[in-house]
Structure formats: C-alpha cells, structure tokens
Amino acid sequence: MAGRSIEIILSRQLADCLNVPVFIVDPEGNLVFYNASAEGLLGRRFEDTGEMPMEMWSTAFHPTDEDGKAIPPEQVPLVNSIKNHVPSHKTFWINSFDGKSHNISVTAIPIIGRAQEFVGAMAIFWDNTSNS
Amino acid sequence: MKVILHGTRGAYPTSTPDNQKYGGDTPCIELIHNDDRLIIDAGTGIIGIDWSQYDPKKRLDILLTHLHMDHIQGLGFCKPLFDPNREVHIWGPGGSAYLLQTRLNRFLSPPLFPVVLRDIPSQPEIHELFNSKIELGPFTVHSSFIIHPGPTLGFRVECGGKSLAYIPDHEPMIGKTKLYDDDSWVSGFDLAYETDLLIHDSQYENEEYMKKIGWGHSSMQICAEFAARTKAGRLVFFHHDPAHDDDHRTQTFESFMSNNSFDFPIELAVQGQEIEI
C-alpha cells in the first residue's frame, strides 16, 4: 500500500494538537484530513465526510466575498497553494454544512518535503465570527 | 539472509557490568547472504565486526539511518575505511539544508576527530538517500523518511525471498500511546509491511515515554502495535536505554509480555545475536 509522506503524517499530528481549524490536502488537492476544530467550523465530523476531492470541498462551503459574490475555486487560498505551490491568504465568508455563515481568514502553505517534492498543503482557519 | 546484531544499545555506549547481557555497543547490524554483506548503521557496534570475513577486493557498503552520534560513533574506527585500496560507499539521509558529506564532516574532523573525511585513505563515496530504492549486490534496499528528530531513514532490505525492516529510532505517534487506525497514516508502515523480521526502537516503558514525548523513540507498547499492524513475522525490541540496567530491561519485557498477547514472537535484541531469516 502507498503510505502518506512523513511530512503529511506530521502535519496531521500537529493539526491534532491544535485548537484552531486545520485542513490538510494531498498533492492532488484531495482533502485528506481536517481536525476537530475544523469539524466545529464546518458542522460535520471528518469520520462522517471522509476524504473529499478538491472539486467538492472548494465549492461545498459556498465561499463568498464581502459583497456576497461567489469566489471562484482558484481564488480560494488552499486551491491557490495546491495549484501554484505558494503561500496564500484571504478573508471571506463560508456556509458550514449546518447552514451557519462564518467570516473566516485562511492562510494556506504548500508542504515541500525533504526531497524537495511538493507533498501537499495545509490551511489554517481563523473564524472571525466566533472570535470577534 | 543472516543478520548479526553488533550493537543494540541506544544513546551512548555503556561498559558497566550490569549492561552486558544485551550488550553495551550502539546500533550496528550486519546482513549476510552467501559472500555478500551489508552494514547498517555505524554505532560502536561496527568496531566488533569480523573484517577477516570480508573480501578486501569487494566494495563495502554502509547504510546510515541518521547522523545522531550513537549511529555514527564507530565510523572513525571502522578499519576498512583506512585501507587505501578499499572501495567504500556510505549511504545516508539527504533532505537537510546541508549535504550529507558536510554533515558527516562535522563529526569526522577536528576537534571531534583527528582525521578529516577527505583524508580518510579509502576516500569513501558518500550517497544521499531519500524515499529511495537501490540495489546493492543481492540486497534490494528501500529507504523512507520516518518520524525522528532530524532527517532519519528506516530501511527495508529484501534478499533471497526474505525481508527485514530496520527502524532503530522511531516515534510513530508523537505524544500518543496508540497509532492512527488508518494504516496509510502510520509512519514507516510500508517499510515494515509483512516483513519476516522487524528490528524496531522500543526504548521506553509507557510511563517513561509520556515524560519524553518528541525525543524520537517508541515504547514497547507502540512498537509491538506497529509490528502487529504491519504483520511483521518476528519482532526484535531494539535500542535499549543505557540508563536502565539489564535486569530492569528484562523485568520490563517480562511484565509487558505477561500483560499482552501477540501472534508473532517478540524478543529483546542481544549484542552478538545471529538471526537467520
């Protein structure tokens, strides 16, 4: 079987310890893990959703800007980090699975491993709605 | 394939009388298949290798899991390195900001060592490994990065239809006493999967581990769970803590075994032990 790279495994172990929402994606953009804090923000447990392809998670939460205009997937920070292997940051609105609206700030970083290969990306969320 | 355990102790070598049952030298194992040999790690155990069994005309390959002192301390005292007619290859982890050669130079140079690496008579060739697969004679070697501070590799060696996984320093779950349920999230899983023999870090007791989280080592409990999950055929507890005498190690092992049940044999590594796979 193909195990995950050590950098992604360690990212998950870090995310497990954090009390801020974290998404972890593989090089293809599949959402392979989100932590308990992200479950609170998204309104659904990772055990229930399982992994999600990028096409699903990048639109499932209906990201919109301050004017309520839909944000195209390529402008979502984590998608940008996956496609271009660069850090990315944005503040926008999402709707969680339970219908709640959240204003969030997202910082995404590419994960470059020891062998200089791109092994995935990680996004950390800040819920401005609940933290304001 | 035969394996000889030349060094089983972690951290630092010890020569106290109460640490001689399992041995006082630091990690080094030797794999033998017919006339071919392969050495993994260069702790002080490497000094005890019987070099008279080696054909001086054959190349010598030494694999290093990582560069912590207990895994390289014997390198400067490895006799073939000082034979100008010997072809020596040293393989170790890449993935640092500094080349493997540069990092080895830090140890093999004054003031830590009198001879600089470039002046070592055999002029060893240094090769960096990542998540790699290489062929060394009859040995197929797979290397993968595993969880341990600094660039650290685990090895899987296949030869003659048999397999060995050697993961002497490994903390698969930092701060937890149980592995993730999904195998793909377990560090080193592919290396050990269905190997005939797994030699794995087991330095701590559970309670001890909780005081040393992030130091890069496993408890006996997590080591055995790792072996069970990877379906290893046989497990050798390795990297004994030199801070504990052998009676303590024996008692810990017996207590662990009396409270747990596994469907594969488990034993404590003994320096000098020969294991036929």
Sum up the structure in keywords.
heterodimer; A: 132 residues; alpha+beta; five-stranded antiparallel beta sheet; 5 strands; B: 277 residues; seven-stranded mixed beta sheet
Return the average pLDDT of chain A rounded to an integer.
Answer: 93
Q: How are helices and strands ordered from N to C of chain B?
A: EEEEHEHEEEEEHEHHEHEE
Proportion of beta-strand residues of chain B: 25-35%
How big is the Rg of chain A? 14 Å
For the largest interface, the chains and their residue counts are: A-B, 14 and 24 residues
- The low-confidence runs of chain B, each spanning 5 or more residues with pLDDT under 50, are none
Assembly annotation: heterodimer
User: Could you say what the CATH architecture of chain A is?
Assistant: 2-Layer Sandwich
Count the domains of chain B: 1
Into how many domains do the coordinates of chain A divide? 1
The strand count of chain A comes to 5
State the CATH topology of chain A. Answer: Beta-Lactamase
- Indicate the overall shape of chain A: globular
How much helicity do the residues of chain A have? 25-40%
H/I helix tally of chain A: 6
Major sheet of chain B: size, sense and barrel closure?
7 strands, mixed
Q: So, the CATH homologous superfamily of chain A?
A: PAS domain
